[in-house]
Design a protein that fits this description.
Elements (H helix, E strand, L loop, with lengths): L12 E6 L2 E6 H5 L3 E6 L6 H13 L1 H6 L4 E6 L3 H10 L7 E4 L4 H5 L3 E3 L7 E3 L2 E6 L2 E7 L10 H7 L1
Parallel strand pairs: 3-4, 4-5
Antiparallel strand pairs: 1-2, 3-8, 6-7, 8-9
Length: about 160
């Protein structure tokens, strides 16, 4: 079942790159007591994700903070090394936390996995953005296949 506004986010963990190397962050540490925008892209370094989706959140980080957002986090079904490299490539600095959902377990827990086998991508996460307030989804914007409207930074700013 797909996550809906008003529902508690499922428990889980993500891979993150730390100064000491690969690490992890739990959903409790990510969401508890904070307002978080969780953005999902089908893959790091893919065209729309690299040209529009992630850059939009980097550019709008201050505006999102101004609306009470503590953390903007971007997840993809990629490993922690790829997410770290993509974050560096996109100059996210401390504006966006890069989260690796390496096996797609969190995308599946949200009910937002995507079968990309026809494109040689395997199982992935759909393109979406969820506003999470203290562990509860308050806004869920899931894109239709091939669309880029409801999960972009501007749409999330309007929803806040």
């Amino acid at each position: 079942m797909t996550i809906s506004a008003g529902e508690k986010m499922p428990a889980g963990a993500f891979g993150i790159m730390t100064e000491a190397g690969p690490g992890a962050i739990s959903t409790d540490d990510l969401f508890s007591g904070k307002k978080v925008v969780l953005v999902s892209v089908p893959g790091a370094f893919t065209p729309t994700c690299s040209a529009k989706h992630l850059p939009g959140f980097v550019e709008q980080a201050a505006a999102l903070q101004g609306k009470g957002v503590d953390t903007v986090a971007c997840m993809a079904v990629n490993d922690v090394f790829v997410m770290d490299a993509w974050g560096k490539d996109q100059n996210v600095a401390d504006k966006v936390m890069m989260l690796a959902d390496g096996n797609g377990e969190y995308a599946a827990a949200l009910g937002l996995e995507m079968d990309g086998n026809a494109f040689g991508m395997g199982m992935r996460g759909q393109r979406f953005a969820i506003v999470v307030d203290d562990g509860v989804a308050t806004h869920v914007g899931v894109e239709a296949p091939g669309a880029f409207e409801v999960s972009k930074a501007e749409a999330i700013l309007e929803a806040l």
